[in-house]
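Worked Example 4.2. Consider the chain below.
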Amino acid sequence: MPTPTCVSRTLGDLDEVAAVARRAATHGATREQIAAAVEYALDHPAPAPVSGSGAPELTEPLEHPAEIAVLDVRDPDGECATTVYFRGRRVDAAVYQVDAGRGYTDEEWAELSQTAIDNTSGALQADLLEAYGDPPGAEYIDGFEGGE
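Applying the procedure from the previous section yields the following structure tokens:
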């Protein structure tokens, strides 16, 4: 008798969770860190395979995938759709796009940059300070006096 889909999916999830725990332990994670990784894996199951959509079929996971991957789908005349993946799973992420070429006033640029900087810390905040302070396309910001 074949295994019901829900049971085989659950067994697959448990194999994946066990793999997460093994990877964490291999990299010297503490018990608390391993527990957090397992909890995250249980709360964020891998998406179901997509088929029949005209897209390539999903394959088995890579043995050593990138820890973090970013998919950026750009519409030249509209918005960008950015999706972030952690170990092959979609995760919520803040996306900061520094695009002076869109055209801003100096006041608008200052407000946009200050909001981004106020909501970040560490290396990201330092990189944002640099990017907003001397952005490519700064000539499109009316009244901008930052940069060099």
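Strands lie at 68-74, 80-86, 89-91, 104-105, 141-142. Confidence is low (pLDDT under 50) at residues 1-9. Compare this with Example 4.1 before moving on.
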